[in-house]
Fold this sequence. Notes:
Layout: E1 4-11, H1 18-34, E2 41-54, H2 59-71, E3 74-82, E4 93-99, E5 105-110, E6 129-132, E7 137-143, H3 150-158, E8 163-168, H4 175-189, E9 192-197, E10 199-202, E11 205-208, E12 212-214, E13 220-223, E14 229-236, H5 237-246, H6 254-261, H7 287-296
Parallel strand pairs: 1-2, 2-3, 7-8, 8-9
Antiparallel strand pairs: 1-14, 3-4, 4-5, 6-7, 9-12, 10-11, 12-13
Helix pairs in contact: 1-2
Amino acid sequence: MVRFLNVGILQMPVSPSLEENQAYIAARLEELMNGYHKPELVVGVEWIGMYAAGPIPGPATDFFADLARRYGIYLIPGTMSETSPELPEGQFYNAAPIFGPDGRLIDVYRKMAPYRPAEPAVPGRRYVVFDIPEKQTKVGVQICYDLNFPEISRNETLMGAEVLVKLTMDPTELYQINKPLHFARATENQAYLVSTNGVGQFESFHLYGNSLVIDPEGHLLWEAGEQPAVATVTLDLDRVSQVRRHGSLMMDHYLQHLRDYDFPQPFAGSVSEAPLFRQLPPTPGNLEEYEADMRQLGIGVPVQEPRRS
């Protein structure tokens, strides 16, 4: 069986209004599905439902379930503020619902590394890797800052993921520092990496776009610019099998050697006990603590006192 997967990418401006984002996704998805190069899995961006907190499944996600069913696709439309009976009132997860071609909610991935101190979401504690049985493949899901922690991509890979999907809302300031990480995660896990990002202005940030797709040997397959964009990119899933079996560039057997060497992990499950953290203070937990930390460095202090009227 030859295995190809067409992945549709929705690089979009993000509105504070869930309804506006739903309308935008529906319109772009219709355009994609009316083209000749049709996607089988479609991925949106982070925080399309930031200000519409609610349960998953629920009224907000029913809309996306209908879209997945209408077009017979796997759909990860974006992330939302998910409330849950297990959380105190007012708290929420940054969550990505995953829908199957029949409209069924397959799973929900909850961001494991919220972007502190700006993001008040509660951290998730479960890796999510879902099956696409028609392609005999598995897809791992993560959200934005998750990519900066190699443990997340590695564990999803060990769970069988051949494709790592990341939904993002990243500001321009982070473009240069984050871009190389995408290539590292794809290369070290010998997996496809599909990263989406919003574009345009969102509150005080300008989102840089530049969604991209990287192959299992770290080659760039496709990259968007800074404007809204839709695209369908074909992934040759058998490349993953080949690279993992015979090595990247037919030389480097990263994953097989991980098994062979089985490196000791002395701080697994107790990382806070590592000697490194004896030297580091607690992380700022909210914006007030962050601003106080910056003031100690002389950053963010007004050059002049504001004029009084």
